[in-house]
Each structure stands twice: as structure tokens, then as C-alpha cells.
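Subject line: Sequence and fold of a protein, written as C-alpha cells
Area: Proteins and the way their chains fold up in space.
Start of record: The labelled sequence and C-alpha cell lines come straight after this line.
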Amino acid sequence: MKDLKDRCRVLTLVILAILVAILGFYGLVKPVSNGCDMTYMYPTYIPISSPQNVSSGKYGLYLYHEGWKKIDFADHLKKLNGVPVLFIPGNGGSYKQVRSLGAESDRAYQGGPLERTFYQEASLTPEEGGLEMDVAGLQLPSQYSRRLDWFAVDLEGEHSAMDGRILEEHAEYVVYAIHRILDQYKESRDARAREGAATSGSLPKSVILVGHSMGGFVARAAIVHPHLRKSAVETVLTLSSPHQSPPLALQPSLGHYFARVNEEWRKGYEVRTNQAGHQVSDPALSKVVVVSITGGINDYQVRSKLESLEGIVPSAHGFMITSTSMKNVWLSMEHQVILWCNQLVVQVSHTLLSLIDSKTGQPYDDTRKRLAIFTKMLRSGIAQSFNQMKQSQKSTQSSLFPTMGERGSQGHMLPECPANVQWSNDGLERDLYIQTKTVTVLAMDGRRRWLDIQKLGSDGRNHFILVTNLAPCSGVRLHLWTERGKLPSNFPVDKRVQEVTSKMVHIPSGPAPRQIEPGGQTEQPPPSAVFMLGPKDMHGFRFLTISVAPRPSISGRPPPAASMAVGQFFNPEEGQKEFSPLMLFSSSYSHKDIFLKEDHPIAFNLSFGISLGLLPATLSLKTVGCGIKDSGLPVEEAGLCKLRCFPPVALAWDVTAGLHVIPNFYVQTIAVDSAPALWSSTQESDKTIILLLVDPHCSYKSSITISFTAAASRFLLLYSSQIIALCFAVIFFALMCQAHAWDLNSPIPSMLRAVQSNLRMPFPALPLIVVPISVALLLSLLIDQSVPPISFILISTLCYLLANGFMIVFVSISQLVFYVAAVMQIFIKTRWQLGERVELFHHFTNLSSGFFSLKVVRFVAANSSLVIATVASTFVCLVHPALGLFILVLLHAFCCHGALCSFFTASFRSHTRRMDFSEYKKDVSDRPSHFSVDSDHKSRDSLLGDNYSSSLESARSFADTQLDFFHHRHGLLVLHLLAALMFVPSLAAWWQRVGTGQSFPWLLDSVLCICVILHGICNPKPDSTFFSFPSSSIIRGEMKMYYIYQFAGCYSFLSGLALAPYRVFYAMAVVGFLSLVLNVLQKRSKEKGEAHTKRRKHSHRH
């Protein structure tokens, strides 16, 4: 019964692991629509020559030129007079990927800045210097003073994400390229001076770095390189670049290089003080600003959590922003798409051009000003508007969005609409006095609507929201009044009236409305702006006015095809709806609809108790009524409702990913690029907030279901690194089980049986899970003074169970391969010996015996461990670590195959002798009783029976020993094969560089892999798992591999929780070193004749 439960448990885990893998990969390979426009260009790449006394190696440097006309390269370089920008490609990238940025930058320079809008701007947080820098008052140039000169480094398309050595070489070349670019400007200016041409303007002192993928990290590594000139780089912009850790954290040297560079950055922002506490000098990176742009949920290669600058760059020197929350972009995009997505490339181009000071022709020297420009050009004001609303509420339960921190200073006067876009009050036909809590505008009628705040904002409806497609200032203006009256044209700004139009925030709108039939009414247009006021904003005022411009607007801009605005006084608590994880899971099999009746709040705040980055949900919203009586024609009614109801809008908010706006929301699977249930996660990361903006005139039917395909894909993306490290923990725990069985003088279980036994509840499965997780929680409490959310425990346990499932499949396949190979060899060998080709077999036997009689072969056979260790270590140190590990794996494979063949052969012989002995005993028992036998025959029969019995027991003992040896070696093979597979990406990158003068492997990788090889060489048999120190020695007690494997498994578990699978090599190195120590101690004890090792009393099984 117990075995049946174990098998059912194993089968369940295997099915679950396979199901997660299939659904996850299916979701990842599905095509993704991003909505990006293509960028077109006419590229030309001008090579930048290197001085004769400088060897630039195999890499190259190019200058981008946009234009279809053929140019003279030398003449073009002489005219070089812009602001240098260096593009650094990523993993496997090309220098030609700069073409989209270069082309749009050239068009932006020629076309001028973007058209000014009057929506609310984002502000800097107090941590970012918002109290000292007013972003709203920051004036951007009306015309760009200097163009951008785009350079790009050619890194030969090398896979820098797979090898730390390649990353270091790329950083060194980028340092050279920066110096070469700055020198080129001086050479170009000198050449113009020699020819008598004008040499106005100053030479650039720094280069702006733009890096894609791993190129962003290379840019940061170059900045802290000791050979880089001071102040040579002050601005860095990264696109989908990992900063916290590598996406494939498999190679130890790669993870170590990331950690080293990040530590240098942390030190670079530290303030140096003397013993008296006074500042000695500015931090080394005090002038550097870094902005990280992420691709969002569609970027499968690098998650937003890895692209965060938290803990590396202070808030006053940089921030991370997702493309879904970028102004004028609002799209999530794949890893490569971010380079050519026109919406993003245009915004980035104008942002970099806005950094140039018109007075000096170079980027602003003030760090806060550069950061303010990045904020103004990239961030949206949506989060700020909703956060201000949160601050005005008494209870955090009614918040629409979680706070991101105080935004800017609240004491600044709101800016008014400029005079050139205003219309006079005389142009308003007549005032309208609204008596209901909901106000609707269906046309640009030139009227002003008065709303009594005291009357309409009673009964807890002290918040006001307006959604519209009218542009601020040119289409609509909003004012707060202390009393009703007409505002003269020359009326000064005082406390009686305040314009709040600038509090409107822009949101992306869906497709333009279409006409149902020619000449008929168009559908309701999607909203493009949201306006919100809280009690603090309206405090001290009696009226709110909404002034709509007459149709031919004063600004001269054409009015929208269909104008719309819907406003409402509401209570935020009425729109609160919370969804617990249990409700989400139950929705998958118990479908429940949520009905929103007419006259409902415009804003619905949906709070999900589990992050939609972990468990994406499909949310549907169907219009079921709009105040039209039922005509029996649902299709006609739906068409009529489109004329009355504006398309819903969903705004999803996550702490990590930021804002994600979904216009024209009806049916959508909502997923955010969050990072929940991690060791470093906070309590807020387990929640996702969705704000639904729906028309209050219409009724809706809503439903929520779980998308298991999307959930499996997100699970693999978020926790694949954790599962990889936990696979090592599973194998270490299985080796621990084998070592423990040997210590108990029991048969060594197979790897499959060991993994299965470690899953038994409550012991030993519960301690193996609880102990590492408890250590992680304790470390978080001691170091960060915080505890991860409860989902961290649940997801970590699930990852461990899935790792067991994957390892069961992996071990089963490898064991099946060995069994099939052994059976085939024995079958072929038997058939060969018994077949007709006896002479050929003897000839082959003579040749092989002659070969094995050679001195070299005999030396290798006698010292196989030493030879294998030497050869493998040579490959590890001089060629590549993966090759040395694969040699070790081959040694394990040969030993496993030989042991299994010996086991089958001995078992076959034992079975044959058992049959012979049974026939002999039957023959003796069948003799007639009157048959006389002399004493000689009796003694011979007795001796023959004893020989049969002892021979049978000997064959059994030998077979059991060989099977134990196979199980032991098979465990080492699985462990070291996983270690070798960890280096396969690095091996692929190394193979690409063969013949190009690659350097030796990193010392860290070589040392760790040599220790792994020592583990395989020094622990060839299961009997070398125990040593007892004598009582006279300083160290007393027992040294068992059981405890060593247990420690290694727990450390691997913690490495997985930290998303650093490369750290399992540290555990394997410790195991290898202790195996060497144990082996040396055992040999010394044998030489001294001391019995400090433990031997099994017998090897046969009972």
C-alpha cells in the first residue's frame, strides 16, 4: 500500500511537470501582436579607422548616416559636429540595428520637437529630487540646436549573454570606442581648421550610451572600467537590458561579473567623507544618469524585474519605465521589436534631442535637469493623478492605485491654458446648470456647464471623474469657483477661481469611430483623456465648470469627428470589487457573471488578491443595455448601444511593471510583467489593480476566467531559474538518501527510488522543504527587516515539486538508456560467441588482448582515475569547462554501463546455477531408496552440493555489489551531467569564437569545475562515504557524505530561491573538495593500519 501511494505521488508529479512544460511552451511559441509601426530608413555605415598604434582587435566602429544619396566618407567625417551617441548591440546583435534610431533621430532633428500638449505632466518623486526640480515648469526647446551623431560598435554578433569573458571583452572595446569617438571629433575639427572652414561650437566631452539587451549592461560595465576617462559618459539609456542578474544565470563567472559590476556601481554613488564627517569629494558616478526602458509582458527574454535599477542606481540618478506606460507608446513589445517599434523609437529620439542645451550645444551638465527631461518626455501623468486621489482619501481601502510615493510639490500653482489656445467667454452661447450627478457632452456646442459641488458631491460622492476625447485647452477647459458668476476677460487669478484643466491626463485611445450607415450617427468615440478631482482639490470651492469650445476652435485645429465627455460625482467605495485567489480558481469551473446596472460609477476598482503576472485572467465585458427598451432584436440593440456608450478602458497597475492601458476593452487576457512570489518580493507585489472606465448610461455583464496556458507560460518565464537550481537540490537529496542507505548497511536505492522516497510525507519531504524556506525567511527578516509574501512559500514548494517531476523523467530516461544498452550488449555478445563466426570472434579477442597488453594501455588502465582527472582538468583550464565535465560524464557512463552489464551477466549465471542446482537436488531426491551408495559417492555428492550453494551465493553477492555500484555511479552521472549542461550556452558562444584568438576560461570557472571533477574521481565507489576521526585527534566525530550532500542540497535550494542557479557550483565545489579530503584520510588510515572507515558486513540482499 505504501509503494502504491509513492507511485501515485510520483505519477502525479510527472504528469503535472509534463503538463506545465507543454502548456508553457505552447503559450510561449504563439505569435504575439504588438501594434508597432515599422520604421523605414536609408542607411549608410561609415567605418571609423583605428590609429596605427592601437589594435582594436576583431571588433569595429561605425558612424551611421541617413540618406539615399551616396556620400564621400572622408568628407562626411570632416563635417562631424553633432552630439555623439554610441549604440551597443546585445546578445548576437548587429551594429546595423542602430538604423531605426539613427533614421528617426535625423527626421526628428529636421522636423523639430513634438507638438505641445496641455495634459498633466509627470513629476519627480522627492527621492528623485522633485522638491527641487519642477518638471511642469521645465521648458523644452522649440527647436533642436544640434543633431545626434549615431555611432555603433560591431561586436561580431557574439553571444554575450552566455559567457562572462565575452562580456568583459565587449566592455573593454566599448571603452576604446568611447575614446576613439571623442578623438574623432577633435580630428574632424582640426581638419576643418586646416582647410579654413568654420569651427564654431565646443568639442563634446562625453558620449551618450544607448544599449540594447546585454549592450545595456556592457555600457554600465564600461562606465566603471578603470581605463575610462573621467566624465566620458554621463547619460545611459538601456532598452530591454538586464541589470540585476543575467537572464541565463548558469555560468559562475557570468553571475560573478554581474555582481562585481553592480557592486562597483553602488560604491560609485557613495559619498566619501573624512573622519570629521565632511564630504571629501563627489561620488565617482555623481554625474551619471541611467534610464532603463523595458518591453513589458511580451518580452520573453528579459523580464522587467531583471531590468530594474533598484539597489544599483539611486532614484536621484535614474529610473525604470515600461514601454506600456511610456508617453505616446503604450505598447508591450518583444525583445527585438523594441529596436524598430516606430512609436518608441520616435519618442526616444525626441527625448535624446531634448537633452541638448541650446546654449552649449551639448547635453545638460545638471543631473537633475537631465533626469527631469527623461521624466517629462517618457513618463505619463496618469499614476500621479490617481496617487493624488489616494492622498485625498481617508481610507487606503478606497484607493484606485497603490501609491508610488509623493509626486513633486503640491504647493505649485496649476498652469493655465496659454492665450493662443483660449476662447473668450463671450463665445459661449449660454450656461447650463447640471442637476444630476452625471454630466454628458455629445458635441462641441460652445457651452459652459455648472456643477454644484456641495449639492452633487453629497452622500459620500466627494470625488469627480471626467472621461473625454476633447483635448485640454483647445477643446475643453475646467475651472473651480467659489461662487457663481461670469469671469471677465481681464480677471486676475485669485482665490475666487482656479483653472484645473492641466489636471487632465492623456490615455491611449482605440480606433477612430465609424459610421453605421452613410449620413448616420457615428459610434461613440473612445476616450483619450481622464480628469479626476478629490476632496482636497475641491476644498473651498462651490462650483465646477466644464467649458466646451465651439466647433470651429480658436486654435485652428480640426475638431474630432465625434465629441464626447462624460463626468460624474462618485464614491470610490461603490466601485470597489475584490477577487481572492480562491474566487479566481473557482471561476475556471464555476462560471459566474457580474452585472453592472445602469447609473453605476464610471470608475470600477478591481483588486486581485494574486498578481496577474503569475495568474493571468481573461476579463470580458459585454454591453447588455443602454436605456433602450427591449425590441427583441439583440443585434440591433447592440448596434444602437454603440451609439450611446463609449468603449470601455482598462488600466492595469503593478508595482514592478507599472501601468498598462487597454483601450476598447471588451474581451482581453490581462497579464502584467510583475515578479510575485520571489524571495525579494514585497507584500504589494502579490496584488494587481485594474481600473475600469465604463459608461454609466449602459449596463454590462462581466466575467473572469483563468487562462491556464498564459499562467503556465508566465510560470516558466518567472521561475525557470529557480527550478533549475532546485533540480540540483533534488539530486543532492537523492545522493544523500543513497549515502544514508550505505551507512545503514542497506542496499543502495536507485536514483529513481531515492527521489521517490524523499517525497514521502511528512518525512523526509517536509523537512527538506521547510528547512531551506525557513532559512530564507529568517535571512530576509535579519537583512531586509521584511518578510516575503505567503505566496513565496507556496510557489517555492510548487517549484520544488516540479523539479522532482522533471528529475524523475530525466533519471528514468537515462536509466532506461543504460538498461537497453546493457541488454543489447549482452545479447549481441552472446549471439556472437554462439554464432558461426567463432574464428572471427577469436581473432578479435586476440587483437584486443594484444592492444590491452601494451604498456601505455596498461598504465592508463591501472591509473584511469589519474589520467581522466588530468585530461579533464586540462580541458577545463585551457579550452572550456564544459568539455572537461563531459569527459567526466563519459567516465561515469562507461562505469555505469560496465557495472550494469556485470550485474546482468552475474544474475544470468546465478539464475543458471540455481536451475542446475535445482535439477541436481531433484535428481538426488528421485533416486530409489533401495539403491545403495558407498561412502565415497555420498561425500562427493555432499561436496558438490556445497560447491553449488557457495557458488550461488557468490554470484548473488557479486551481482548485488555491481548493482549498488551502478546506482552510485548513476547518481554522480546525473549530477555532473546537469553541471555540464549548465555550461552548454557558454560552450556555444565559445564555439562561435573558435579561431578568433579567444582567451583562456575564467579562473573561477576552472577552479569550480576542477572541484566537480574531484568529486567524480575521489568518490568512485559507495564505500568511500564515511570516516571516523580518532579520539586522540583535534577533530572528533564522524565525517559522512550524507551530511555533506544534505548541506549541498539545502544550499542549492537557497540558490534557487535567490534566482541564482550558478551558485550550485559552489556547493558542488565544496562537495568535491571534501570528497578529496575524505579520500586522503581514508588512504592514510589504511597505510597506518587504522580502521577509521566503515565497511559493509555483506553485500548481498535479504
The chain has a mean pLDDT of 84.
